[in-house]
């Protein structure tokens, strides 16, 4: 009987020891890479004995931190001049009279045919890296298929606003959309 008890005790101690090895083996290594979009490049660099540096995520651009020149860069000269005296209230009226609000909403939770205008000024500052916010909005109005937002159909927005809206109305509309920021 004593031999059975000793065998059971030895078996139990061996089981506890094996369990401890398993638990310790599962502990995370704080020095290992984390799963991220850069993991492949980090592993390749480590294999090549290169130094791996994590690059911080860039801070999105905000209209509040941009100069008027940065906001309007790249606009056609006549639109840039008109934008200087633009009236956002007239732009809101233009959005209603040209049926823009039939496809776009200021409510980010309201899914419509076109993208939301909620926070559009700051969104436009980051949408196409090579375009200023005003230039992106101008192109979106007069050449709406130049950049299609993911999840939205192309060819729905009228293609003739560059011909039917005068420079001041375009500038007022751009001014209204730029005013939708920091939301």
Task: Give an overview in words.
- This protein is an all-alpha fold and 183 residues long.
- The chain folds into two domains: 2-47; 63-178, Cytochrome Bc1 Complex, Chain D, domain 2, CATH 1.10.760.10.
- The protein is 49% helix and 0% strand.
- The protein is built from nine helices and no strands.
- It has helices at residues 2-25, 39-47, 68-72, 77-84, 88-97, 120-127, 133-142, 161-164, 167-178.
Sum this structure up briefly.
The chain has 183 residues and is mainly α. The chain has two domains: 2-47; 63-178, Cytochrome Bc1 Complex, Chain D, domain 2 (Orthogonal Bundle), CATH 1.10.760.10.
Describe how the helices and strands are arranged.
Elements: H1 2-25, H2 39-47, H3 68-72, H4 77-84, H5 88-97, H6 120-127, H7 133-142, H8 161-164, H9 167-178
Helix pairs in contact: 4-9, 5-9, 6-7, 7-9
């Amino acid at each position: 009987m004593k031999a059975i008890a000793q065998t059971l005790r030895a078996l139990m101690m061996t089981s506890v020891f094996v369990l401890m090895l398993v638990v310790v083996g599962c502990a995370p290594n704080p020095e290992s890479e984390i799963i991220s979009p850069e993991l492949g490049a980090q592993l390749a660099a480590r294999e090549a004995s290169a130094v791996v540096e994590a690059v911080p995520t860039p801070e999105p651009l905000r209209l509040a931190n941009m100069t008027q020149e940065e906001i309007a860069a790249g606009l056609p000269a006549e639109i840039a001049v008109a934008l200087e005296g633009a009236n956002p209230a007239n732009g809101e009226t233009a959005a209603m009279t040209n049926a823009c609000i039939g496809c776009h909403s200021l409510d980010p939770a309201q899914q419509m045919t076109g993208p939301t205008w909620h926070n559009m000024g700051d969104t436009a500052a980051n949408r196409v890296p090579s375009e200023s916010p005003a230039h992106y909005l101008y192109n979106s109005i007069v050449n709406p298929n130049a950049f299609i937002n993911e999840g939205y159909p192309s060819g729905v927005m009228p293609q003739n606003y560059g011909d039917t809206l005068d420079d001041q109305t375009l500038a007022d509309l751009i001014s209204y959309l730029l005013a939708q920021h920091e939301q």
